[in-house]
Amino acid sequence: MTVKYIRVNEQKLLAFSTKVLEKNGMPHDDAFIASRLMVNTDLRGIASHGVAHLKGLYVQRLKTGFVKAKPDIKMYSGAPATAVIDGDRGLGFVVGHKAMQEAIARAKVTGIGAVTVRNTTHYGACSAYSLLALKEDMIGFSCTTGGLNAAVPGASGRQAGMNAMSFAAPCNKEFPYCLDMSSTMAAWGKVEIALRTGDMLPLGWTIDQDGNPITDPKEDETKKGAMVMLGGTKELGVYKGFGLNLMVDVLSSVLAASVCLPELFQSPETASTCTHFCCAMKISGFIPPEDFKKGMDRMIEVYHNLPKAKGVNRITIPGELEWELVQDRQKNGIPLDEVVIQSLKELASEFKVKYDIEQ
Question: What is the spatial order of strands in the sheet that 177-182 belongs to?
Fold first, then answer.
């Protein structure tokens, strides 16, 4: 299947998405924050978590009222460095951004800030939040529970969340170190992309309720396929992926006095809600930031200069390839597949927003 991609302008896409969210009742500042984080994700090449979700996920949930356009976000704190936020089912981008900004503010005072979030919704890619800490010479960490689409080792069907995490640290290189990963073999958005492009899934990503592998993304819906935890099998360490998955639930659910994600999905009133966790660490509380960045530079150079395996031209660090995509896409536009482009045109028509985003 040949897929057509159209490049769109970053700033025009940002303005378009902001207007669409405003048309759905969100205040301008919140709409802009959500759109900025969404577009940043597409800039980094994470097509599974960008504007592809604008129509079918975020706008749809705003229209039904499941996501509140103007949530009454509340915060509780039991110590100077920590807090719990109740997102009142606001859009995850807005609630997650508030959580990381609060963690950063507390880290400026105490050296470390940690904020856990309950009663919120999907907030896109975790790196959108961990990277915010770098501007303040801090290390950032963020994690979130996701949709109930993952398989628990030994259980049948979709029984766990698509939980994910990101860890970012500054350096003097042009790109920052940034790990952004799911606790499963891939994000569920990769299945959505395969459905749009007609591609098959790699063997070992998803399984049916009997544990048989699925490679056709269409069968993931008909057979209620589940994404496998990192490692894939007991022999290859699937319990490490499961352990990371549970770690996210501890930090973002249990620590926030929420129930774990499988329990959330047992009730129609709470199904599809999420929980998050954001943490910022002030580097100067350990060592001078410049010393840390020089150390990061040395570490990266050591790995870059390791002997290469046959056929390998370069060794890259997490965050490096994404940074290169950002440079290209800010200059030449963000490639969106024709299905996503059509969804944006439909939003433009429905909400009377000018469609003028193509590069």
Answer: 74-79, 82-86, 112-120, 274-282, 138-144, 164-169, 177-182
139, part of any domain: yes
Last residue of a domain, one of 160, 195, 227: 227
In a domain, 136, yes or no: yes
Length of the chain as a residue count: 359
C-alpha dihedral (127, 326, 345, 5), degrees to nearest 10: -120
Comparing CA positions, the residue from 175, 170, 186 lying closest to residue 283 is: 170
164 within 8 A of 146, measured Cβ to Cβ: yes
Query: What spatial distance separates the first Cα and last Cα of the chain, rounded to whole Å?
Result: 24
Question: What is the phi-psi region of residue 107: left when phi exceeds 0, alpha when psi lies from -120 to 50, beta otherwise?
Answer: alpha
List phi, psi (to 5°) of 63: -65, -40
Residue with the bigger pLDDT between 103 and 263: it is: 103
Q: How far apart are CA 353 and CA 10, in angstroms?
A: 17
Q: Which two tokens stand for residue 44?
A: 């980094």
- Please name which of 137, 139, 201, 132 lies closest in space to residue 169, comparing C-alpha atoms: 139
Q: Enter the DSSP assignment of 175.
A: S
pLDDT tens for each residue of 230-287: 999 999 999 999 999 999 999 999 999 998 888 888 888 888 899 999 999 999 999 9
| 316, part of any domain | no
Question: Got the DSSP string for 52-70?
Answer: GGIIIIIIHHHHHTSSBSS
35 and 24 share one domain = yes
Radius of gyration of the CA atoms of the chain, in A: 20
* pTM of the predicted protein model: 0.95
